[in-house]
Structure formats: C-alpha cells, structure tokens
Amino acid sequence: MKVNGKKLPSQLLILSILLALTALAFCPSMGKADAGTAETPPENSDAEQETAAEACWDAAHEALGEGLPRTALKHIEPILENALEEENHAEAALAAGYKATIEGRIQGYKPEEVIGVLEAKIEEMPKEMHPVMHAILAHWYWRYFRRNRWRFLRRTETEEQPGEDITTWDLPRLFAEIDKNYSRVLDEEDMLRRIPIEEYDDLLRGGTMPDSYRPTLYDFIAAEALEFYCSGEQASALPQDPFVLRPDSPVFEPLEDFLDWEIETPDPDSPVYKAARLYQDVLAFHLEEDNEDALIDWDLHRLRFGYNMAAGEEKEERYREALRAFMDRYSEHEIAARAGYNLAGEKKKQGELVEAHELASEMIEKYPDSRGAGRCRRLVASIEAPSATANTERVWNEAGPEVRLDYKNITEIHFRIVPWNWDDYMGEGTEDHPESDDEERYEQMLDAEPVLEWSEQLESTDDYQRRSAAFQPPALPEPGSYFLLAAPDPEFKGKVGSVVSYTPFWGSDLALVTRFRRGSPGIEGLVLDAMSGAPVEGADLSGWALAQPR
User: Do the Cβ atoms of 348 and 383 come closer than 8 Å?
Assistant: First the structure.
C-alpha cells in the first residue's frame, strides 16, 4: 500500500488499508469541488499542501527506518492535524492509524498495546470515522488471539466478569469484543455498499481475483467478519452452541431457497447463526444489484461454509450434490471451474481417483484460463504423480529375503544394491538414522559401485491407486552392510522419499536375539546361525547407539 506514492511498512499494511478504505468510504465527495458554494482556493494551494504532506510522510518513513519512532511521530502529527482541519478523512485516517501503530510500537509493539492506543483514538476521531476504527479494533483483537492462542485454549472461563485488562480475559470475553466491533461496522451496511472497491485500487496491492468478485467495501468487511465467525476456535469459546447447522437445511439448496430460509435459533449470539445470516445478506444484496461475478463467487463460498459448519453424516453427499447443481446453473461462468475443482477434490478424498481425474481434466479443457483450471491442473498432477517405496528385511541370508514395493503410476522398477561402510558412518558422529531421507547421502550411493542391479515389470495402475508387489532379489556376493535403492528411472533420478527410496540392510548368515531386563544395565542375547538356529560360541560383538541431541 502507498500513501502519496510511498510504500507503507509491512506491519502497517492491513491496518492502513482498512483505515484508508473505510475512511474514504465515509467521505465519498472528498476531493470534489462544490461548484456553486465552495470558495475558489488559492492557486496551487492543493499542490503545495500535497507537497508538504509528502515531505512529512517521507520524513516519518525515514525516521522509522532509522529506528526513531518518536521522531516519526513528530512528522505524523502535523499531517493528522491538517487533515482533520481540512476534513480530509482519508488522510486523517491513515495518519491516525500510523500514529496509533507507532505509539504501540514504542510501548513494545504488542497487539494489546496497539489495541489500547486505538481504543483511545476512537473518541478523538470524528464520529464518521468510528466504524472504521471498530473494524481495525476487531482486526487487532483477532491478531492478539492468534499470537496468544495457546494461552486462551488453556485458560478456563472466569466466574466473574473480566475487567478492562485484555491480558486477563478468557476466550468468550475476547470473542465477544471482536463480535461487538464487527457488528458495529456491519450496522453501516447501507453506506458500505455504496462504496465501490475500484475507487481505491491505488491503495491496495493487486490480488488474485478481479475487483468484480468483491466490488464494494461491504464485501471486504463481510469477508473479514466471516473469517472470524467461521473459525475453528469458536467451538472453544462457547460451552455449547444451541444453533446446529443441519445438512438437510437450505444451506445446500439453490440460492433462492437459501435466501428464503427463515433461520430459527434459541441463540442469536451463535457465530454459526451470524455467519449464515451474513451470507444471506451479502447474497441478497448482489442478487438485487445484479452483480453476477460477486453473486456467483459468494454463492460458492456459501456452499463451502455449509460443508465446514454442518454437522451430520450426510453432509458430504449433500455438498457434492450442491456442487453439481452449482456447476449446471453457472456453467457459462468460469467460477464453475472452482466448483469442479472442489468436487474433484471430494472425489479424490473418497478414493474415486479416476472420476476426480476426469472431472478436473474436463474443467481444464472447458475453462483453460480460469483460476479453477489452475487448481485442477495441480490436482491432476498430484493424481498422476508416480511414487515408489521399497522395504526389505533387516538381514538377508539364505532363508530368502523379500523386497516389498508400494507404488503407483509406474510400470517398471529398477533396483540397485550398493555397499555401505558402517564403521565409517558411525565414526562421523552422525545423529541421523540411516533410513532418514538425505539427498547428500543418496548422491554418495549413486557414486558407489553397485554389487547388484536388476529390474522388475509392474502391473499398470490405470486407476491411479497404489499397488503392492513383492520380489525375490539375486543372492548377495558376500556378507556386509548395504543399501537397497529403488527408482522407476534406470538412472535413479528423482526425489528421495517420493519417486526414489533407499533402505539399509545387512547380509549375514548370523542372527541376533536380544532382550532388555528392567532395572538391569546392558543387553542380553544370543548369536545364532540364521539357518540352523544353533548358538555361535565365542562371538565377538560391538555395539553402537545414536544419541539424541540435547
């Protein structure tokens, strides 16, 4: 985000965006001369004021960059004073937010410090700017929770009403405050709906969606509020939520039926209930205004909301049916590709890989340049991705070892056995287990001269499902420590742990039987002939241990 062409520090980005957007929203005529009543300003006065403001902003940014927040404040204060005097609420909001954040930074830049400063600033700002301040407060309260999530989830609800000190609040108290601030902002929905988001493109970094998907400031604030109401932590804030979103409710029905749904609940403070009502309000607004892009986008989000929040075994099928109906209804719009991606993802989750692949491929062909098609390409790639993981017995002897392979999307597997010097490995003082994935170690294996190499043909996995196979390897030339490498590529190229795997083993005609006695140091055991089971007398043993780092 930029102010007078200058990029704001990243810590202030969200704060300043919200402040600027909402402040500008409450001054829609700002910057336009009133031809007939306004006095003609002195020539170049606007330009001179803008130049002076730019100089102050530059000086403030420079001071912050040098770690001088108090100096930065001195440059912000005249901007704020002049903006309030000129009733330039846009500049005033930016300056006020900047000032509050700097003051919070001076006090430690903790969310609770910024919250305290912003609370005090509300009373100092013009009444028209109060809603924006409440939006910012909601944001900072939510940020405070996220930074202290572990404390809140361990803190029990207090019997007495918490005081004003936010650090002593329990989760219900904090969430009630966030809800209160969002409710105050959304009470101004009529005004927010009149503010097109495109007027403020210069204040926002470009997103991944066009402005038509979120055409008004109301959309922007509603999306922020819904993220809060639909968060998983809401379940921890309330001992019970009397309002239960049922999968057989109109939440998965066509748009008109959802809008006609008179939601009844004994608990109007339920966050799920509030979210459902907010979805109805947003969709009704865009249906009335004939905002097709926004209407379709919000309608798809409504279905996902139902899937995330509904309770009941049948919600999966209801969600899938709703996605199919959505795709049919909006087949001429590219957002249908995102619905297709969601449905294909559900099919993949249920193991219906062929159907998921076909649907995602259809979306790519029909909507090739859409965002949904991009997601479908990644889904298709994940379904088609080859994989191979080989495992074997820890010790190979004449009893006949077995190599087991789990694989998909490959028709041939190549094996290689390379020698491995155990004494050198342990002498390096390594803390890694020999079976852990290590690209550097794997490269060393590829450089080693193999003692055995062979290949196996595999059953095709046209259904994209994983298969298992077992093979009998050739006999080892001599005892020792080895690595077994497996890869679909004859050159053994690929990502370790995905397409390529390796596992250590020993070639030996001996077997070791051990046991631990509780309270007794050391290990007891026997060294046996692996084939006959006869004890081996006078066996010389050495032991190693991988120590855990402290």
Answer: yes
